[in-house]
Amino acid sequence: MKVYLDLIFFINFMFDLLLLMTVSIECKVFSKKRRLIISSFLGSLSTFLLFLPLNNISLFLFKVIISIIMILVAFKINSKELFFTLIKSLYGNSIILGGLIYFLNNQFSYKQKGFIFIHDGTSINLIIILLSSPIIFYLYHKMLNKEKKKRELLHKVFIKCKKGTFSTLGFLDTGNNIKDPYKKRGVIIINSNKINLNLEESILVPFKTVEKTGLLKCIEIEELIIDDNLIKKRYLLGISPEKIEIKGASCILPNIIEEELK
Question: How far apart are CA 232 and CA 31, in angstroms?
């Protein structure tokens, strides 16, 4: 029996690459293409373990270690929760993909002659790659471009007020048009755990969302620096009644500040 190692390596490399892209799409965690390619290359090297005299337990442990290395190489991990989410997605999609290949191989790669099944040489694995790769590549690039646009809205923010100084990550929300009704100052909204304001020292600014209306407790900002640029225009700092967590950002910048960031 002839075994074409280059073809086996290529098929496994492509499957690993498509699998990592599927994990990326599912978990909405995106990396540079170079990292995905290197990770897929490392994963496809596990193919050669099949030719080593290893028992099933050793082979399983090697595959677990390689899958962990693949995740660490492919993605930037910043928490345990993210790591386990990516691992679960990797194994979940591997089981689905492996089961699909096994089913299709049984259905189309074998011919039945009486009670005997004979492999006719049809490369179902290669056919699946050719059919699925354009779809997964398209979805990955579409979501990657969407993610890049979102990241362009993230800015480093330094705020100084009478309650102290804060350094955080801000999200430029084009829908945030809250202004105080008197001086028309824009409002930067921050998580309540960053600052504690009582009613007496607050400037109350009315706000309205799709779900509710109310009054936002605010304080004057003495100094505002965004992306190392000093902002001269005056803004208020508002305390969010709900937790803000947008792509790692803990404050929301108003839409009127966009002109000063250009």
Answer: 36
